[in-house]
Every structure is written in C-alpha cells, then in structure tokens.
User: What shape does this take?
Amino acid sequence: SVCLACFLANGHIMTFSLPSLRPLLDSDFLPLADMRIAQTFSFSNCGQALYLCTPSEIQRITLAADTCESLQEMLCELFLPVDTPEGPKQSFFKGLFSSPSIVDKEELFGEAASGKASRSVAKHIPGTGGIEGVKAESGSAMAEVQKARMALVERGEKLSELEERTEALKVGSELYASSAHQVMEKYKNKKWYQL
Assistant: This one.
C-alpha cells in the first residue's frame, strides 16, 4: 500500500499511512553525527532511499520487502573489467645499443659521414626581394588598416543616423499616444448614437 516515509532530524525513519497519517513505523536508523547525511538523504518511489555516507560513497536502503529481495540483481560495477593490452615491442634504440650487431655508419648518419655532400642541405630560395619586399608588405598592411578605419567611420555614421531615426520614431509615437488618449477622453462618456 501507499505510505509516506520521512527521515527526521533525530536520525529516525518514520512511515505514516495515507490519507490518515497514522504512524506505521518509527525506527532509529542513524544517529545524526554528520550533517551530510541529513542534507543528502532522499527517498524515491518503491520505498528506497539514498544518501552520501562519505563524500565519495552512496548508501542505498529500502523499506519494501519485495525490493529487498531483488536488491542483489540491482547491484552494479563502477568499473568494467578490461583485458590487459600487449606489452610494448622492443624499441629501435634498445636493439641498437644492446645488440652486438655491426651497423654501417652510412646507414645511421647518411652520406655526410662518408664524406659526400648531403642532398638534404637547405637551399636558398629567392623571395620577393629583401628590403623592397618588406616595404611593399608594410604598404599593403597600411592600406588594410586604412580600409578598416574607413569602415569604422562609416559604421559610426550609420549608428548615429539610426539613433536619430529612433528618437524621431519615439517622439512620433508619444504624440500619437497623447492624441489617441485625448480622443478617448473626449468620447468616453458618449453613447454610440451621440457620435
């Protein structure tokens, strides 16, 4: 049957019948040593309740016998078991320094160790022309800054124009409201056939 369950400030759990509120159960559940329990204690349906017994542990209780029988089925695991992955393979350096095999110097360090010129040396790639290129780039940057400044000025002009139009609309709407109010006052006490 349906009942009302309460956790009281003295640590008791009481159940009352509905709608008469006749006491059914008064059980000394927990001494109120920690305010966390009182602040987090919450009943759910089917006579179950949850509360934090420590900052990281949730305690679950039940008052219903049928829920108590199926409580083992409701248990869960927080972490799923996972197979251990394979160990890392032997690294290149471990094999290089621990094995007694002979390694060719050219294979390790390239052609530079053998006295030949390396093909991967940096080459000069001609650019836009030193100082003149930097001046041209700075000139284009100045043009972009000038464009941005002009756009900002135009935006300011449009905003001020919009502000003036908004003010004019406000004044017009106030005039219209006052004239509508005067017309209403004029015809307020007249009948329709007197108009």
User: Anything to note?
Assistant: The chain has five helices and six strands. The longest helix spans residues 130-186. The longest strand covers residues 48-54. The beta strands are 3-7, 12-17, 23-28, 42-43, 48-54, 57-62.
